[in-house]
Design brief:
The protein is mostly helical and 325 residues long. It folds into 3 domains: 79 residues, no CATH class; 94 residues, Cyclin A, domain 1; 90 residues, Cyclin-like (Cyclin A, domain 1), CATH 1.10.472.10. Helices cover 52% and strands 3% of the residues. It contains 14 helices and 3 strands. It starts with a helix and ends with a helix.
Length: 325
């Protein structure tokens, strides 16, 4: 038989194949005709020997999607898989959850008997999702983290990091003797610091279920025991949020950032609260740009006392004048 015909002839399994089935579909098989390696799976649905051209198998099943996507956005829109696993849920989102709405697939309301049945199913579903004490602890803590993060407007990556920190503390048995709320608040504060979206300890006070001293102690304990790499907060990272809340021009924020950059090498930042420095820089920048804004207004938005603002802005202006001279 000629080489041309050999390249396209189909292998007769009844004549040469052994009693056992042909090898499964893999990226590399052994050809039953010539014994050569290098059998490849072609895109057209055939397994072909590269050496002699024998078609080992055809009409193969394509387990990939039936659609095509040309960019990541189109791929996300067409994908029909479930939600990805996440550390913000105690079971990482791998379990099912019964919806709270009492309606069927068509949107019609359920009967009274069905509603009563769904209530019992939801109750048992919640019990089975968190059976051990550790799972119940984690479920409550992650719920607290999500609630506080929503109240503070923190992004999803901060919530994920806070959840990971709390999980480490739970698995390392750091929680005995400390409240869940305090450790959850400390984890979220540490995560915000690590993600360069810091919030001051005072900003957690209205939303946390424990007092400031307790969650501040919990944060220091977590940072020490887990070895968290938390750098000192940069006062400039508070400027965009404060400037937006005060509705000041962009020039004020730019000048405030310049004041902070000039004063940092001179040691003005050492031992000072970054929130107080940011508030003082905004007030000093408003004075330099002839923007009418009072210390009281800045104090209310930044939750810093007027005395602290006066002290900080004077120190910043002195450092700025020295640099100009």
């Amino acid at each position: 038989m000629s080489e041309t015909n050999t390249r396209f002839r189909t292998h007769d399994r009844s004549r040469t194949a052994p009693t056992e089935p042909v090898a499964e579909e893999t990226d590399e098989l052994t050809c039953p005709e010539c014994g050569a390696d290098g059998v490849t799976v072609e895109k057209r649905g055939e397994t072909v020997c590269e050496a002699c051209g024998v078609v080992i198998e055809d009409d193969m099943i394509d387990h990939g999607p039936e659609w095509r996507a040309f960019d990541s956005r189109e791929r996300d829109q067409k994908s029909r898989v479930g939600a990805p696993s996440t550390n913000t849920l105690h079971d990482k989102g791998l379990s099912t959850k019964i919806d709270w709405q009492d309606s069927d697939a068509k949107g019609s309301a359920l009967s009274a008997r069905k509603r009563s049945q769904m209530v019992r199913l939801r109750t048992w579903d919640e019990r089975f999702r968190a059976q051990s004490a550790r799972e119940r602890n984690l479920k409550q803590a992650l719920g607290e983290i999500d609630r506080m993060a929503s109240a503070l407007g923190l992004p999803e990556n901060v919530r994920e990091t806070a959840s990971v920190i709390y999980r480490k503390a739970l698995y390392d048995d750091l929680l005995p003797g400390r409240s869940i709320e305090a450790m959850a608040t400390g984890s979220l504060y540490a995560a915000a610091r690590q993600a360069n979206t810091p919030r001051s300890l005072d900003e957690f006070q209205p939303i946390s279920r424990v007092d400031r001293q307790e969650y501040a102690r919990a944060y220091r304990y977590l940072a020490r025991e887990l070895g968290l790499a938390v750098e000192p907060a940069d006062p400039a990272s508070y400027l965009p949020r404060f400037a937006s809340a005060l509705d000041v021009p962009e020039e004020v924020e730019r000048r405030a950032r310049e004041l902070l950059n000039v004063s940092k090498p001179k040691g003005v930042h050492s031992g000072k609260s970054p929130v107080g420095l940011a508030a003082g820089a905004l007030y000093a920048a408003a004075l330099l740009t002839n923007e009418q804004i009072t210390q009281q207004t800045i104090a209310e938005e930044t939750e810093v006392s007027e005395v602290t603002i006066r002290n900080r802005y004077q120190e910043l202006l002195e450092a700025y004048d020295q640099d100009a001279a």
